[in-house]
Amino acid sequence: MKLDVIKLDGDTAGSVELSDEVFDLEPRADLLHRVVRWQRNKAMQGTHKAKTRSETSYSTKKIYRQKGTGGARHGDRNAPIFRKGGIYKGPVPRSHAHDLPKKVRRLGLMHALSSKARDGSLVVIDSADCDGKTKALAQQVAKLGWKRALIIDGPEVNENFAQAARNIEGLDVLPSMGANVYDILKRDTLVLTKAGVEALEARLK
Fold this sequence. Notes:
Elements: E1 2-6, E2 12-17, H1 20-23, H2 29-43, H3 102-119, E3 122-125, H4 134-144, E4 149-152, H5 159-165, E5 171-174, H6 181-186, E6 189-193, H7 194-204
Parallel strand pairs: 1-3, 3-6, 4-5, 4-6
Antiparallel strand pairs: 1-2
Helix pairs in contact: 2-3, 4-5
GO biological process, one term: translation
GO molecular function: rRNA binding; structural constituent of ribosome
InterPro entries: Ribosomal_uL4, Ribosomal_uL4-like, Ribosomal_uL4_dom_sf
C-alpha cells in the first residue's frame, strides 16, 4: 500500500510504499488482546502483601479454655476469623508475568500497525528532527492536529527531537525497537518516520 509522506511543517514530501505483509492485515482482536494482556501483566510489580496469622502482633496464648464457655473453640487471636487477625490465603509478592510465543508477539505488532493503517490513523513523516525547542514543536503538532500521538523513529531517536517532545502532553516518542502493541493502540495517531518504517519492516518480515 502507498501512503503520502509529510514534513513536520505540513508540507508534502513524496510518498512511501508500505509492505502489505506488515501494514495490510485484517486486525484480529483476540491476538491484540493476548499481547496487551501479556504486556500489562509483565509490567505489574506484584509487591502486594497481606499478613498471615504467623505475622500479626497478637499473643499466641489461648484466649479462653477449650470447654465449658458455651462458645466456639479458639486458639489465639491471630486466627483469620477475628478482627485484625491474619489473612487466609491473602496476596503474596509474586510475578504476574506469563509466557507468550514470539510468533504471537510479532503477529500482534503487525496487527496493531495494520489496525492503525485501516483506521486512517497512520501518518508517515519524512524525519523527526528539530532544534530542541518545545514551543516550536508544540505549534507544529497542534497545526497537524495530533492530540494523542505516538511517534516511532528509526533505530535511534534524534536527541533534540526527544528533548523537545518531552514536555508536550499526549506526545510519546520511541525508537523502532521500542514499538509495542499497547502503546500503539492507546494513542489516537501513530506517526512513523521513513527510517521507522524501514526498521519495522526489517524487524517484522
